[in-house]
Specification:
Elements: H1 2-15, H2 44-51, H3 53-71, H4 78-97, H5 101-122
Helix pairs in contact: 2-3, 3-4, 3-5, 4-5
Length: about 140
């Protein structure tokens, strides 16, 4: 059953255009799309993202916040932000791997929402009209 769900999500992830996440009210198509290609999900955290709706939405929203932080006009931070994000992913995975399997998706969701809030706050991203504006408390989160 899990394989069927993962394959189904991978097909959706590949079929929904990335721009669809930014369209329409609320999260739009972010409920169907991770910030990466689900067909290439090769570890427990990635598979959890692709198979857990709330986590999938949070990951998609964080992908947009990351992109906005990276592409902000006048911001020359592509390399440092990429390194910072990769480090965060490693630390998130280590922290959540300590949780029982039944609690891992909740841990990943909490960590992703915390990181989303940090990106918004640290890089002073405007949230109005953005996919990530719908994550309650994200704009109020403090940098770690």
């Amino acid at each position: 059953m899990k394989i069927v769900a993962l394959v189904g999500l991978a097909i959706i992830c590949g079929a929904v255009p990335l721009a669809a996440c930014a369209e329409g009210p609320g999260l739009g198509e972010c409920r169907y799309r991770a910030s990466f290609n689900c067909a290439k999900a090769d570890d427990a955290a990635s598979r959890a993202i692709c198979t857990t709706p709330n986590l999938l939405s949070a990951d998609c929203a964080m992908g947009y916040a990351y992109r906005d932080a990276r592409d902000w006009p006048g911001a020359n931070r592509t390399d440092s932000l990429r390194k910072e994000q990769r480090h965060w992913v490693r630390m998130r995975d280590v922290a959540c791997a300590r949780h029982p399997v039944s609690e891992r998706a909740a841990c990943l969701t909490a960590e992703t929402e915390r990181r989303l809030g940090w990106l918004i706050s640290h890089y002073k991203l405007p949230v109005a009209g953005k996919v990530y504006e719908n994550f309650g408390g994200a704009a109020e989160s403090k940098p770690e």
